[in-house]
Design goal:
Strands 2-1-3 form a 3-stranded antiparallel beta sheet. The chain is extended. The chain is mainly α. The protein is built from 9 helices and 3 strands. The longest helix has 24 residues. Helices cover 46% and strands 7% of the residues. Helix 5 runs antiparallel to helix 6.
């Protein structure tokens, strides 16, 4: 039985979500530090550090991104969202100095995606976060693509293990382009092959002829 090849759905761009993207689904489960701005009755079981039946106002929790976005309202504050440490001023200074030395996979692995989603929450640091995300991407882009173009038929696990998921996708695109170019140079790109329908039809004819 033939199986359909899975075609990956790309994630959303910037602050947008793509609900059919596996990357965006995983990103939405990244946990954020939040502080409750009102009491949450009969939800004390969510906070393991207390035996109270309720979650009192001012409790610090970690909630997934999708729930934090759902509870966050500018007019009626239910929770306030704190910045994860990698987006705070101290780490932004490190990123500005030399973004290439950092292991984004350990910090995320959705550094760019989560950082873009943090812009949904009203914070005076949002312009600085957006600028750091942009400069970090620009600063690491050339090295990422250069690495993808100089690793033909090699084990690239050591190269990609420090990359963010977005950078890994760019790395794979660069390698795919390089492999296609190498095939074209060798004259392999123009070779015609029989489709699976033709091959299956031939197999059925042979089976019908055989006694």
């Amino acid at each position: 039985m033939d199986t359909q090849t899975y075609i990956a759905v790309p994630p959303g761009v910037g602050m947008e979500d793509n609900y059919f993207s596996l990357d965006d689904i995983l990103l939405s489960h990244e946990r954020l530090p939040v502080r409750t701005e009102c009491a949450f009755p009969r939800l004390g079981f969510l906070e393991k550090s207390t035996d109270s039946q309720d979650i009192p106002e001012g409790t610090k929790l970690e909630l997934p991104l999708w729930l934090s976005k759902g509870l966050y309202e500018k007019k009626r504050k239910v929770v306030s969202v704190e910045l994860p440490k990698v987006y705070r001023e101290g780490w932004r200074t490190v990123f500005t100095a030399d973004p290439n030395v950092l292991d984004l996979h350990k910090m995320g692995p959705y550094y760019y995606g989560l950082g873009s989603q943090m812009l949904h929450f009203d914070s005076p640091e949002n312009p600085d976060i957006a600028q750091t995300l942009l400069q970090t991407f620009i600063g690491r882009f050339r090295r990422t693509m250069d690495s993808s173009q100089n690793a033909y038929n090699e084990d690239t696990s050591a190269l990609v293990e420090r990359l963010d998921c977005l950078e890994k996708s760019l790395f794979r695109s660069g390698q795919s382009g390089l492999n296609g170019f190498q095939s074209w140079e060798k004259g392999q790109a123009s070779q015609l092959t029989a489709s699976s329908l033709v091959l299956n039809y031939r197999k059925r004819k042979i089976a019908d002829v055989q006694p």
